[in-house]
Amino acid sequence: MTTDQPRPGGATYAAAGVDIEAGDRAVELMKRWVAKATRPEVLGGLGGFAGLFDATRLTAYRRPLLATSTDGVGTKVAIAQRMDVHHTIGFDLVGMVVDDLVVCGAEPLFMTDYIATGKVVPERVAAIVRGIAEACVQAGCALIGGETAEHPGLLDPDEYDVAGAATGVVEADALLGPERIREGDAVIALSSSGLHSNGYSLARHVLLNQAGWSLDRHVPELGRTLGEELLEPTRIYALTCLELARKVEVHAYAHITGGGLAANLARVVPAGLRARLDRSTWRPGAVFELIGAVGQVAGEELERTLNMGVGMVAVVPAEVADTTLNTLHAMEQSAWLLGSIEPSDGPDAPGGAALHGAYAH
């Protein structure tokens, strides 16, 4: 038997834990933030089934290559949830995605996001989207769509996770990468703002579980509370890297994320060459030293888990190294000469990177 009306006491979506009205309110709250993260090529607004981007601009390219990247934030979201601070985690999401695109020289064009939560709290969802939108503005790309999914029973009411994907474009003959790197090239480090979005399982294990510290604990070495340090947003390098490549010759970039400095740089070093990196050229920030000391974590383990204060690396011809540093400093980006590209053990040996010496004190 069928009926057009629910029976009294019958099951409803809301009773099952999904609040459609809360989702609608979340959309209303986030609209003003999304409106800021736009570009002239974006068509339409929120509410459609797909985001639209006018690709006519690509006709100006001789041979446009589309680049795409997707990522999440990882367990850093647990810090945001415990602190009940949600408007910065979007910078971590956008940074992880768009700065993978810019490594090949691609300009980020647009991004979409996905938020899964145990219970839609409109103000919380809007705060998350606010951060994503503000970070997209900082990266020069548009936020053209997204999805918020309520998963009662799978996630606790205060739990959520975020993910995103972005698309960019680069002229084929401007593509950056291993093919451009040459022996003698200079390796330039661009400083990170902290842990960024990697190694949080280790950081949480050491500082919160082993040491038993609270997030509101003031840590003199950090000059602020532990929670404030752990929630420091990821630095977004996209516009800086694009501008640098317009002003000087850049052969490659490496985004320093999970796996650490040497492993990520090795991904763009071609066979027959290796990057020799000098630890004495910088001192990792206090948070890295703190995790190592409190957890008695071996230096090698720290270096393959955390960025150690380097969020992006540029490989440039040696003759433009000074100009590169001056250009970055003019853009208020801390940077230094980290090392150089040298021959490896043989022409067929895989490309690699290794750290040498001791850190500066």
Q: What does the model show?
A:
- There is one protein chain.
- This protein has 361 residues and is α+β, with helices and mostly antiparallel strands.
- The chain has helices spanning 20-34, 76-83, 89-101, 122-139, 200-210, 226-230, 238-247, 260-266, 286-295, 299-303, 321-330; strands at residues 42-43, 52-53, 64-72, 107-117, 142-150, 160-171, 186-191, 218-219, 224-225, 252-255, 273-278, 310-316, 335-343, 352-356.
- The strands form four sheets. It has a six-stranded mixed sheet with strand order 10-12-7-13-11-14.
- A hairpin with an 8-residue loop joins β1 and β2.
- The longest helix has 18 residues, at 122-139.
- The N and C termini lie far apart (79 Å).
Give the SSE order as H and E letters: HEEEHHEHEEEHEEHHEHEHHEHEE
Helix content range of the residues, please? 25-40%
Distance between the termini: 79 Å
Estimated share of beta-strand residues: 15-25%
Q: Mind summarizing the main beta sheet?
A: 6 strands, mixed
- Total of DSSP H or I helical runs spanning 4+ residues: 11
Mean pLDDT, to the nearest integer, reads 91
Count of strand segments: 14
Helical/strand content category: alpha+beta
Q: Which ranges are low-confidence, i.e. pLDDT below 50, for 5 or more consecutive residues?
A: none
**Strand ordering within the main sheet:** 10-12-7-13-11-14
Question: What is the 3D form?
Answer: globular
From the alpha carbons, calculate the radius of gyration and give it in angstroms: 23 Å
Family: Belongs to the AIR synthase family.
Catalytic activity: 2-formamido-N(1)-(5-O-phospho-beta-D-ribosyl)acetamidine + ATP = 5-amino-1-(5-phospho-beta-D-ribosyl)imidazole + ADP + phosphate + H(+)
Protein name: Phosphoribosylformylglycinamidine cyclo-ligase
Pathway: Purine metabolism; IMP biosynthesis via de novo pathway; 5-amino-1-(5-phospho-D-ribosyl)imidazole from N(2)-formyl-N(1)-(5-phospho-D-ribosyl)glycinamide: step 2/2
